[in-house]
Amino acid sequence: MTVDTSPLALPRYGEPWTVDDLKRLPPDNTMKYEIIDGSLVVSPRADVYHNGIAAHLCRLLTLQAPRHLLTSMESGVAVRGGMTYYEPDALLAVAAAFKQRDADHLDPSDVLIVVEVLSKYNRRHDLVTKRHYYAVAGIPQYWIADPDQQTLTVLTLADDGSYAERAVVRPGEQWKSDEPFPLTVDPAEIF
Question: Membrane spanning segments where (predicted)?
Answer without folding.
Answer: none
